Amino acid sequence: MDTRDEERRRVAEHIEWQKQGAWVVLWGVYTRRFWAYACWPVIPREGVVISAERPDHLYTDMRQVEREHGYLRWRYGRR
């Protein structure tokens, strides 16, 4: 495995840690993209999967999806 892949895998682990179990985040060695799978109860039945080439874009998209589906309201009781 390329050392850059190992570094990106660690970045994915860090993002997952930051999200406190609300997402499963992976680095796709073959796809060369970061992938995030929502795992909270207020997502649509078909689920939510996000991918991005850069971790900052992934994180931004994750936040957008959280807002769209009321995750922050569910998690923190915000209105």
TrEMBL record:
Lineage: superkingdom: Bacteria
Protein name per UniProt: Uncharacterized protein
